[in-house]
Model the fold of this input.
Amino acid sequence: MTAINLTERIPNNVNLAGDRTLQRALEHWQPRFLNWWHEMGPEDFSAADVYLRTAVGVDAQGWASYGHVKMPDYRWGIFLADQIADRTIGFGDSFGAPVWQQVPGEFRSQFRRIIVTQGDTEPASVEQQHLLGHTCPSLYDLRNLFQINVEEGRHLWAMVYLLHAYFGRDGREEAEEMLTRHSGDVDKPRILDTFNEPIEDWLSLFMFTYFTDRDGKFQLKSLAESAFDPLARTCRFMLTEEAHHMFVGDTGIARVIRRTLEVMKEHGTADPAAIRRAGAVDLPTMQRYMNFWFTSSLDLFGSEVSSNAATTFANGIKGRPDESQYQDHNCSNATFEMEVPDGQGGVKKDAAPLRNAMNEVMRDAYIKDCEIGVKRWNMQIQRAGHEFRFSLPSPRFRRSIGAWLQVPTDPAGNLISAAAYSEGMPNWLPSAKDKAFIKSLMQRVVAPGKIAAWIAPPDRGINNLGLDYEYVKLA
Ligand SMILES: [Fe+2]
Ligand SMILES: [Fe+2]
Done:
């Protein structure tokens, strides 16, 4: 295991001290990052002591230590997974050749764009979540929010390191830009739409961490296959941290459902109005939140057919998640079949060259992964004896990019008229009324061991601690 020296000004396992120019450049960026954190990070909690995990190694076992830390003192740093000896390129035109320790000149701008796009999402999500601390349902949840926030900050460090270390002056300029774009900013928004959507309540946070962080998982998995070894190693370690973010979403949604089922039982009704009066979230409202975040996240994978996707695959920049599961790693002679609108109100089958369909391959894998949670949540409902079932909308529904852009369908994917679409929308996405109701539930609970009435407690605490542990010591 490569140990991380936490006493250095920038903790790292890349021997930063051995490259004084790079070290100085990053030390110059560090105070700007901290300014950004103070301005755009969690509002008002700078003085709180938060029970956080901090990376101390990059080994799968025992890579983190836990303790109370003030967030601005968190040891953000640069941690790459250990190098794999004799690693070779796993896909594309250069399959089988040794991986690259430097960026080949001809692929430089493609690599830079991908690293910048990934990097931009990390601080974006911190900005999206910066007010949520005020309305936390418990100290346990508050701590989890802050854990995610500091780790997204670290993921920004991960990408900024690559930009500084391998992209010269262009890279340094991009690193500056990371701190000047802001989520939802009219003039300088974040690059991807989903990361400009406000997250103003905890139900949205759980949906975001389940669906949108999971998009992150698939992007990181595909970059972990990259022929550019430092990028691959960076992403492999980020995936270790990312698992907790999706855990927060998965268990968060399950806990809201559990509480709702309790209220349904207590009151002997499934009527949404009655459930709301009793202070819980009715299941149809949860479905609408799911529809919103799932469809928004689907767009992050890009168009079904994309020459850009073909190029990044051919050039060894971005592979498929878990590339080793496939037989054919070249993919230049294969096709991929998909359903697209026929332009006359129907659907037709279309085959695209597989390399051009890589976005769709990834999106399919992502959807399968999303379905696992949905199945589990439906089991909860079934066990409680209710008919209601959650379902993921069809990938045709409400798309803002690609073949299904502006093709009106219902959530099941049936083609419908534009009029039927606008009429149906208020029932398919959270309405202003839904949002106002969810907002009304967001009352801050910060007594140790106590929890808001709209969500059930978690099954267990963090790091084997109890639920009444003081995970955040408020100043
Ligand atoms: Fe991240
Ligand atoms: Fe994340």
